[in-house]
Each structure stands twice: as structure tokens, then as C-alpha cells.
Write a structure and sequence with these properties.
By secondary structure, this protein is α/β, with parallel strands linked by helices. The chain folds into two domains: 3-120, Rossmann fold (3-Layer(aba) Sandwich); 124-208, Arc Repressor Mutant, subunit A, CATH 1.10.10. Helix content is 42%, strand content 23%. It contains eight helices and twelve strands. The strands form three sheets. A five-stranded parallel sheet has the order 2-1-3-4-5, with helices on both faces. Strands 6-7-8-9 form a four-stranded antiparallel sheet, covered by helices on one side. A hairpin with a 2-residue loop joins β8 and β9 (143-145). The chain is elongated, with a radius of gyration of 20 Å. The N and C termini lie close together (9 Å).
Length: 211
């Protein structure tokens, strides 16, 4: 699940965005001022920053500049009512990846977020677990977890279908020897090594629970 920090002091807008983005399976943290945002950025590993400019204590431009000066290269979008060229220039000079003027279309924002996160990396996240689609490696708590190839292939199916019931025949397709017993052994090893919850939905299949 991708983690987004939203710096926005408008209570209605921030809660609306939080609800809409969470419906798209993003994990949202809200900061009402720049100082809180700065603390959150040091305490968490975010995948994207959504930043208003005119917020208390530390404005959005200065907040992002501090992060960039400290080596933080996390993608950042400004969501602001400021429309003048000087503000636009300041935003990109501070290190912004995009500058979206309020009011904006939510669907357009989703498209921009999706495009940027897909460009940013090739990782699929599930809690503290991270799967790199390029290197085919799994990490948990930033430590590499070695799984047999079949277990990795099975886990990837679940990872791409979090919260959905997977028919056992779909899992059989990546197994060398397909049987109910063999599948239970593979699932047991995956759950033990990754410490995750895969639920057996009687008569239907299996499901990796949402977190």
C-alpha cells in the first residue's frame, strides 16, 4: 500500500481527499502545518507528498526545500490556489514533480498520482513487505526474505489481488505438482516466512487479507 503525506490546513478539503484516496487503497497521513509535516516525514517512509503552500509555521515551498536539501527525493505535488508564474517557478525550484492548481479534478489527480508512483519504482508494498518486480526479490522490514520460486510466484498472485478470493486452480498454475496438500504446504511456508494472514474461504479459495 502506497503511503502519502498530505500537507493541508483546510479541514474539509483534507478529510475529503483522505477519504477519496483511501478508497483507492492509498494510506494517508494528514499534517495541518509544515512543522507537523516535517516530523511525519522523518518518522515515516512516504511514497508521495501532496502539499498545499499557504500553511502555518513552515510553508509548503520551504518544507519541500528542506526535504530536498536533506536528500529526500520522494515525489512531491503542490496542490495550491496560487496561479501566478512566480509561485509556479518557486514550486519547481523547491523540487516539485508537479504543480496542480485548485480547484482541480479529482480523477486527474488520481491519474497523475498513479503515473508518478509507477514511474517512481517497480515495488509492490504490503505492510512492511516489499516486492520488487524488476529484481524479483522480497523484503520484510528492509531485510531480504528468501523464498523458493514457487512460493514467490504464489505470493505474487496474492499480492496483486489483495482482499480478493483466489481460486486454488489459479494457484495450481504456478505449481510443479498441483494438489490440495502441496498447496497447503506452500501456503504454510509463505505465512510462516512472511508472517502474513492468508484466509481459507471454504469452498471458494484463499484470500490475502487487507491491512
Amino acid at each position: 500500500m502506497y503511503k502519502i503525506l498530505l500537507l493541508e490546513d483546510d479541514e474539509i478539503l483534507s478529510q475529503t481527499l483522505k477519504e477519496l484516496l483511501e478508497n483507492q487503497k492509498y494510506q494517508i497521513s494528514i499534517a495541518k502545518n509544515g512543522n507537523i509535516a516535517l516530523d511525519l516525514s522523518f518518522e515515516n517512509d512516504f511514497d508521495l507528498y501532496l502539499l498545499d503552500v499557504n500553511v502555518p509555521f513552515l510553508n509548503g515551498f520551504d518544507f519541500l526545500k528542506e526535504l530536498r536539501d536533506s536528500g529526500d527525493k520522494t515525489p512531491a505535488f503542490f496542490l495550491t490556489a496560487l496561479r501566478d508564474l512566480d509561485s509556479l517557478s518557486k514550486g519547481f525550484d523547491a523540487g516539485a514533480d508537479d504543480y496542480i492548481k485548485k480547484p482541480f479534478d479529482f480523477n486527474e489527480l488520481l491519474i497523475r498520482i498513479s503515473a508518478k508512483l509507477n514511474i517512481k519504482n517497480s515495488k509492490i508494498k504490503y505492510g512492511e513487505i516489499e516486492y520488487n518486480t524488476e529484481t524479483k526479490t522480497i523484503k520484510k522490514d528492509n531485510k531480504t526474505v528468501q523464498l523458493p520460486q514457487v512460493d514467490t510466484d504464489i505470493f505474487l498472485i496474492f499480492l496483486k489481488n489483495i482482499g480478493k478470493i483466489i481460486d486454488k486452480n489459479t494457484l495450481f498454475d504456478v505449481m510443479e505438482k498441483s494438489s490440495d496438500l502441496a498447496l497447503r504446504v506452500h501456503l504454510s511456508k509463505i505465512k510462516k516466512n512472511l508472517q502474513i494472514e492468508i484466509t481459507n474461504i471454504r469452498g471458494q479459495g484463499y484470500r490475502l487479507e487487507e491491512i
